[in-house]
Design goal:
The chain has about 350 residues and is α+β, with helices and mostly antiparallel strands. It contains 13 helices and 7 strands. A hairpin with an 8-residue loop joins strand 5 and strand 6. The two termini are about 50 Å apart.
């Protein structure tokens, strides 16, 4: 369903809710819903309503009174009454400079009622229909963007909201995190060129310790993508069979130079089975010739049984006196940013010792 149609239905539903409450309390006392269920706040609420009627011409005084009335309703856990009160006030006073704030309260009331789509309608309405407003030093538009980012599941909308947040409120937000999340949204859309460019911007902030839910090591994730993108990528093979055959031939001929050429030049690791891939010591900084001289190196005739269509292991022995057994690790390249190598195979690392 088109988004504008969804929002139109949301608006209609809000009006219907207001009408239902009006019918419940009757036209003879249209404000009865503002007093129902308030308990000890009842007397204060009546006085606030009386003062509101007397001071309609005073914008600042009206703001204080309406804010307190709505606050009493929220404290009494009556978000639906807040919605009716404030949406009616906005319709009756279209020139009220605080209308953006009232609609922000309405959106939060819908969030409290577990109605995020309704809240989304009002956050969007504020951004598109009302100028920004600061309350207690906080921007209304910034609050709307941050809430919309939490609500929406659309990567296209995420790009719109993060871009606006970065452009308009750069000095008030965590730019590193925002750039990373913007890049992730581009990635989800398949906009790889924009994703890589945005990851480069993220890396410029040096946020090595940034925590992103669902991404164990966000900085390394971005760095690997950027490094891979800028590399030659000339070490990949069309098929796993071709890669394994080339590795076997180089080992049989003791051709360490060929093995060094076949190794991935980005993110290649050499570590024990117990190590984590994020461990700095897992980075392989050596030449294959250092481990081949004078040794009789053998390869198993078949790949390890744990191999699958996306990754494979080849057991080899005879490398040196300390750790004789190495499992060579091959994986299918997952890099949609470059269709020419996406789906090819690379020799990505080494595991020392027997499998655990």
């Amino acid at each position: 369903m088109p988004k504008n149609l969804v929002f139109a239905l949301v608006a209609a539903l809000a009006v219907a809710c207001a009408g239902a409450i009006w019918l419940t309390f009757g036209p003879s006392d249209g404000r009865a819903y503002l007093l129902a269920g308030l308990g000890e706040r009842d007397a204060e609420q009546r006085e606030l309503l009386r003062l509101l009627d007397r001071g309609k011409g005073d914008v600042e005084n009206r703001f204080v009174l309406m804010n307190r009335i709505a606050g009493n309703l929220l404290a009494a856990r009556r978000p639906s009454s807040v919605v009716v009160f404030l949406t009616s006030a906005v319709e009756e006073n279209p020139d009220d400079p605080y209308n953006a704030y009232w609609l922000l309260m309405v959106a939060h009331a819908y969030l409290a009622e577990s109605a995020p789509r309704m809240a989304e309608y009002y956050f969007e309405r504020i951004l598109t229909k009302y100028p920004d407003l600061e309350i207690k030093g906080e921007s209304i538009h910034k609050a709307c963007l941050e809430n919309l980012i939490k609500i929406t599941e659309s990567p296209e909308q995420q790009v719109t909201y993060y871009s606006a947040l970065i452009t308009r409120f750069a000095g008030e937000i965590d730019l590193g995190r925002s750039y990373f999340m913007l890049a992730r949204s581009y990635e989800r859309l398949g906009e790889w060129e924009l994703a890589i460019q945005t990851y480069v911007q993220f890396l410029g902030y040096g946020r090595y310790d940034i925590q992103i839910p669902g991404v164990p090591d966000a900085y390394e994730y971005a760095k690997k993508l950027v490094d891979y993108n800028t590399s030659s990528k000339d070490w990949t093979f069309e098929t796993l069979d071709e890669l394994v055959a080339a590795i076997r031939a180089a080992i049989a001929n003791y051709d360490y130079r060929a093995l060094d050429r076949y190794r991935a030049k980005v993110n290649f690791f050499a570590m024990s089975w117990k190590q984590e891939a994020s461990d700095n010591n897992a980075e392989a900084d050596f030449q294959m010739g250092d481990f081949m001289g004078g040794n009789r190196i053998r390869c198993n005739e078949t790949l390890d049984a744990s191999s699958n269509p996306h990754e494979a292991y080849l057991r080899t022995t005879g490398w040196n006196q300390y750790v004789s057994t190495w499992y060579l690790y091959f994986r299918k390249v997952n890099f949609p940013a470059d269709p020419e190598i996406h789906g090819r195979w690379e020799w990505a690392g080494i595991y020392y010792g027997e499998k655990l």
